[in-house]
Design brief:
heterodimer; A: about 280 residues; 4-stranded antiparallel β-sheet; 10 strands; B: mainly alpha
Chain lengths: ~280, ~400
């Protein structure tokens, strides 16, 4: 199963990384949430970021999307160092994300939710809106077409005019992905997209993630569900207690003694011996 | 009690469902536009028609209409800030005062510019004031923002009171009326007699005539026409902005500021834009007020006026411009209509507000979204109880 995922991927090792996380450390007061973590994401791949609870996955995620600032170390995206960048600027650079606990705009329609994302890359202005300039009308039309297309892509097109709060749980998760895709990201970060899904829905989600990649995006996936991660990711980075303990293809990760130790729990000395 | 409340709240929805087919037919433009024009003309002619029951027996009706229209302008402006962008502004009177004082200062106190020139200047000055006050305050959220804006509203009033250059406690007197539109000889083009009602039979009252278009001291009708025209223009422009991506970004910011930011919305910029747009419109209302009143002083702009403005928006339905306008009509009109109750009217007014807020917590005319969301939720509840056949509903919708 994991091998099939690696087979379809062209070798991207040679290409320059899209996102480069270099010796990243984050401290909250005395707590070290991330300790000297280094990894990169290559264009066109699906990278899984896993680890036990509290390993620092979401923290890493939040640094990449600009919610937290790094204590030391750098994150470089597509040649730009992400430091002191506003969150919306990072979005415009080409990083989009979804949320672990769904954060849609509840009293806006599904279509409007996606439109907010789609608006990210057109100029907005009150005067443009008042005078309905040709630019305004053209981009508005394009945004609407794009939003409808994305709703269809994730499979919630039948409910475009419904309020997002009235969609089913699974549809809300998919709508969040559509909203993130609407910002035309180069890298899309999915924060536990399978949480609360049944096996059939997970299967569909795996296909959706592959479709997103095939549409030319790069995917960073934070997920607890091992079957999903191993089934869809090209490479996996494993964190534990803020440190990177392993990196490699799903097959390598599954065989890695340090990872097995982290997930199943092994005596301290055994881990040292193993690694 | 609860059931009565839900039933009353549902009555509104039932009405809107009932009228849906009529509305969709009205939605076709050829029928709709003449009806709208007729409605607008009717509102314009209200001070002339002086209709019984609606007219205020114990205070000058055109004057009341003017005040109501000013409140409606204010409500539309405040609805952008509070309703669309979700920023609770408890100091809106500050912008109203700024607009009024710019008119006072430039038409009589420091210069003698004509009103039509001062009006845009007043609005621009208020816009800048909005940006200056918004830039530092909009970094705080929620209740804190409400407190800070309230402070700024007071700050403006106190600054005026203590600055001689701005008129001080004495205020500014003899603010000239807007220039009248007259024919070559300085006479009004024509005069319109008002109607006077004996029971239900209308009589033409030749003693009370409105000169077109002379802004005098006694007759408030031309001021009402001016304010109503301003209100209509404001609504037309506000609609264009609301139904654009600016409106969407305001809503997204209101719903979830962090998520909006991560979706590429520069939320601070948009909050500031909402705040400044609101100020711009508040300045317009203030300028019209000064031109009509002829005399302004700091006491004209107390903090509780801000609260009344917010009450208008919330009662009518925050986030819905028509709701906000109706809220303004209620807040400004009811106390004048029932003037004969003297001091009791404030008690009744308070009771009316309490009743409205407890039975329709979303306001009398909640934003379309709130209304539809509630109906959908009820549908979902019925589905779980099993009273509604989902397939049948789907078929009905299709």
């Amino acid at each position: 199963m994991p091998e099939t995922a690696t087979d379809v991927v062209p070798d991207t090792t040679a290409a320059a990384p899209l996102l480069d996380v270099d010796h990243l450390t984050i401290k909250f007061g005395g707590v070290v949430a991330l300790d000297d973590v280094t990894f990169d994401i290559r264009p066109g791949e699906i990278l899984g970021l896993i680890g036990p609870n509290g390993a620092g996955k979401t923290t890493a995620f939040n640094v990449i999307t600009g919610v937290y600032q790094a204590t030391s170390g750098t994150v470089t995206f597509d040649g730009t160092v992400l430091r002191k960048k506003k969150r919306y600027q990072i979005t415009k650079l080409g990083i989009a994300r979804t949320f672990q606990n769904i954060r849609l705009f509840p009293s806006m329609t599904a279509l409007d939710n996606v439109l907010v994302g789609a608006d990210a890359h057109s100029k907005v202005g009150i005067l443009r809106a008042i005078f309905r300039t040709p630019y305004f009308r053209r981009t508005e039309r394009e945004s609407k077409e794009e939003a409808r297309r994305l709703l269809k892509f994730v499979g919630v097109d039948g409910r475009a005019e419904e309020f997002s709060t009235n969609l089913s749980y699974g549809d809300q998760r998919r709508l969040e992905i559509a909203r993130a895709l609407a910002t035309r990201p180069k890298l899309i970060c999915l924060d536990e997209p399978a949480a609360g899904f049944n096996p059939a829905e997970k299967q569909k989600l795996m296909q959706l993630i592959r479709d997103i990649r095939d549409a030319g995006n790069t995917v960073l996936l934070v997920e607890h569900d091992m079957k999903l991660v191993m089934g869809v990711c090209d490479r996996v980075v494993v964190l534990e207690f803020g440190k990177k303990i392993a990196e490699g293809t799903p097959a390598e990760i599954q065989a890695d003694p340090a990872v097995i130790a982290a997930y199943l729990g092994v005596e301290e000395e055994d881990v040292d011996d193993a690694s | 009690m609860t059931s009565l409340r839900t039933r009353l709240a549902d009555a509104g929805d039932w009405m809107s469902d009932r009228w849906a087919p009529v509305r969709s037919r009205l939605g076709k433009k050829p029928v709709k536009i003449p009806l709208i024009i007729l409605g607008i003309l009717l509102v314009y002619s209200l001070p002339i028609l002086n209709p019984p029951l609606i007219s205020t027996p114990n205070s000058d009706f055109p004057n009341v209409l003017f005040t109501v229209t000013l409140y409606a302008i204010v409500a539309v402006g405040l609805n952008i800030v509070t309703g669309y962008a979700g920023l609770l502004d408890l100091g809106y009177v500050g912008f109203y005062a700024t607009g009024a004082y710019v008119v006072g200062l430039l038409t009589v106190y420091h210069a003698a510019w004509p009103f039509l020139l001062v009006l845009p200047v007043a609005m621009l000055v208020t816009l800048v004031t909005g940006i200056l006050l918004g830039a530092p305050t909009l970094r705080v959220r929620g209740d804190y923002l409400a407190i800070v804006t309230m402070g700024f509203g007071e700050l403006i009033r106190i600054t005026i009171r203590n600055t001689e250059w701005l008129g001080g406690t004495g205020g500014i007197k003899a603010i000239p009326a807007p220039n009248s539109l007259t024919n070559g000889e300085g006479e009004p083009w024509f005069s319109i007699p008002h109607l006077h009602w004996e029971g239900l039979s209308p009589l033409i009252d030749l003693d009370e005539q409105t000169k077109f278009l002379v802004f005098g001291v006694l007759d408030a009708t031309p001021y009402f026409w001016l304010a109503l025209t301003a209100l209509i223009i404001v609504i037309l422009i506000e609609r264009l902005v609301k139904n654009s991506r600016v409106g969407r970004m305001w809503e997204a910011t209101r719903e979830d500021e962090d998520a909006a930011e991560i979706m590429g919305v520069p939320t601070f910029k948009f909050k500031l834009a909402a705040f400044a747009s609101g100020a711009f419109i508040g300045g317009l209302a203030g300028a019209l007020f000064a031109a009509k009143a002829g005399y302004i002083n700091p006491i004209s702009f107390p903090a509780n006026l801000s609260i009344l403005f917010v009450a208008a928006v919330v009662i009518g339905g925050s986030g819905n411009r028509w709701g906000a306008i109706i809220g303004a009509v209620i807040v400004a009109y009811l106390p004048e209509r029932f003037r004969e109750l003297e001091d009791w009217r404030l008690l009744f007014f308070g009771a009316a507000l309490v009743i409205i807020v407890s039975f329709r917590p979303q306001g009398l005319f909640p934003a379309y979204s709130a209304r539809r969301a509630r109906r959908a939720q009820r549908e979902a509840e019925l589905l779980t109880v099993g009273e509604l056949d989902p397939e049948q509903e789907e078929a009905k919708r299709a």
